[in-house]
Amino acid sequence: MYERPNFSEYITARLVTLGVGSTLFFGLISFFVFSDSYQALGTIVFLIFGFAVFIYAIYNGAVQMQKELLVINKYLENLDKVSKFDDEIQLFTQEFEEINQNLIKVIKRARKRDEIKQRYNAKLKLKNKQRGDMISAIAHEFRNPIASIMGYAQTLEEDKDIPVHLRDKFLGKIYNNSIKIEALLGRLVLWNKFESGEATLYKSDFNMFELAQEVKLTLEEQYKNRVIRIEGDVLKIEADRTLMEIVLKNLLENALKYSKEEVVLRIRHETISVIDKGVGIGSDELEKVTKKFYRSGTHSWDNSMGLGLSIVKTILTMHHSKLHIQSEEGKGSIFSFAF
Length: 339
What we know:
Layout: H1 7-33, H2 37-77, H3 94-158, H4 164-196, E1 203-207, H5 208-222, E2 228-232, E3 236-240, H6 241-257, E4 263-268, E5 271-276, H7 308-318, E6 324-328, E7 332-338
Parallel strand pairs: 2-4
Antiparallel strand pairs: 1-3, 4-5, 5-7, 6-7
Helix pairs in contact: 1-2, 2-3, 3-4, 5-6, 6-7
């Protein structure tokens, strides 16, 4: 198979061909011009020597240029392997120096674009994982209330003679599970608004103590035989009342679900705290429980797609506040924030 010559070989071959041809041409002319054969021969020798020096000089220049081409080609051959560029390299000609510097800039920009692409792919992969986790969590959270509704409804459909008190009990179960589904959907919609940046604050002046009393009454209807005790003073704040209601409800629900004893909501010195004596949270999970879609391997702290505490954190951030968590496994937890 034909192999192409390298740069120096090509230049040398062309020069030798040119030199030999020129020497023969001028040698023949010399024999006609000079009558003395020795003089003609001396002229030919002189021409051969001159062309040899000329070819040698051009050859050295070609070799130098070939080296510079090899330096530039090195970057092209090892784009994936080159970790550091030699910006200080000095080339023989200005044109090759400029080509080398421009090539390094192009490669650096390409490397930077590749790094940006890798970061984007990593974020996209994380987003896809979160989306998969969310779908899995939604399926998990909706399965129980939907199965419960279907079971009670099927019983009522098949047994037309069911006692009145039992029928009312089943209808109550269906209603309560419908409320659960509505709450899950509401939480999902709210999270989507936060993610898309569509959520806005509608601030007003209200009494946090009175709002806590309202949330307490609502939850005590849902969690029968459970006690929520409110301690503290009147606290008037300027905030989004609807979002603050969500914060209190989420924190109190967590406490009720993972504590068998009474739950305390304390308002003191502009700080609101929800205190329980439940299962607690391990130290290795304290920083994770407020992340969206996070669900503990032991407990699902918010029990709603891993979004409850993430929503609380986001709402408080919008109000320039922060959620603080103190907890110890087996002894309970304190969730608090301040205005």
